[in-house]
Please model this.
Amino acid sequence: MTLPANRPRVGIIGAGMSGLCMAATLRRAGYRDFVVYEKASEVGGTWRDNTYPGLSCDVPSRFYSYSFAPNADWTRNFASGEEIERYFVRVTDELGLREHIRFDTELASARWDGARYRLRSTDGRTDSVDVLVSATGILREPKLPDIPGLDSFDGAAFHSARWDHSVALKGKRVAVVGTGSTGVQITGALAGVAKPLYLFQRTAQWILPMPRLPYSPVSRAALKLVPGLNKLSYLGYQRIMELIFGHAVIEPGWQRDAVSALCRSYLRTTVRDEELRAKLTPPDEPMCKRLIMSTAFYPAVRRRDVQVVTDKIVAVEPKGVRTADGRVREADVLVLATGFDAHAFLRPMELVGEHGVTLEQAWRDGPRAYRTVAVPGFPNFFTLIGPHSPIGNHSLIAIAETQANYVLRWLDELSAGRVRRVAPTTEATERFNSDLRDSMSGTIWTSGCDSWYLGPDGVPELWPWTPARHRRMLAEPVPTDFELA
Ligand code: NA7
Model:
């Protein structure tokens, strides 16, 4: 029986990079009945929340853009956080997405009632949708370190994703905890501003020298004049990223050797002081943790007014940070660049699927999705940048686009009335996850290090194949992998 054509009403959770991607994909395909629920009062997600000094993206800007919304105006090869946030605001307005966004609306729950999802926001408002798309991002929930005495600090203390811009930094004693991408960028920006700057490093990180270079007005004008150049540049960067990093992280080969050699020689040639170099030499392989790109960090930590502290932090005290050697580094400002809970997914929101089973229950043993985009037992529910998406040093925008287009394929099926309810089978999901696990062993992430890439069971929650394989896998839905009604 063919059901009457009926465009489903779609709910999207989050107006960050991937939520906007889904919204734009729907609008471009002619869908109008969709709502984006956004807990804040502006778009941008992690790019709205993170405003720390030195913030920039580690994916080239011409590739870290929606393919359908090229930006000839990028001012640098690696755009600053502020510029990226402006880009998302502009795309939102230019593509007419703002009218679909319900700002200041945090969803508390979504419950499948057998036909639709009943939604409730934290302030008690209700709504219902036929299809629900989670676009809640991965770097959303700041992770505070478990350091005794954190609350006792007399000065200003904040997480890097909640930067307090009212706090003056010039000439102040600043302590930064954490040497991930964030701590490294902050150090590069605050060296010479803070006096002194203490960088508390638990584990050294490999750094790839990637200079941030401005684009000339001429090249920007050329890209505006000839839009094809923008496309060419996008494709060029995509090819390079996929050829180098796409392979380096998943299998041994010249790409891995080249990145590794470059990181090692950069450290050797840039940090001549042996004691400092020993401190900065990571115990693991380059790319085991997410690779950091910077040319500002090593020059920063070579300064006399910047100190890399490797003694274990034992407590924060009113005057500063105490380390295991008994020393207290006194500070006026304490910055916690300690990362995010990358496994929060929709939490704290509650999602209830068939038979009253919550996503929390379904994911008791760790997040498992069908091909990164759907979950058995949760009909008409899709995830963007969900579990095992190919996020390792790749453009998340490109990944989100692939996934949004996949969701669109199912929406078209629903619209045409060919199906009303779509959920992947447990069997297909398990098969996919078992293949994933079997393929993890050659990846660099299993070479022995701790990072936000690893799940609670120590298995990387990443994609062990090439980004191209992800695109191919999601190019067409496989109906036999689904329970359709
Ligand atoms: P990351 O990459 O998770 O880095 C967090 C850093 O904080 C890392 O150096 C941690 O050391 C350190 N950390 C965490 N807890 C503690 C405690 N208790 N004591 C000392 N040091 C601690 O987060 P970022 O914000 O830098 O980057 C996240 C992503 O954003 C990044 O990968 C890019 O994709 C953009 P550890 O290495 O665990 O020893």
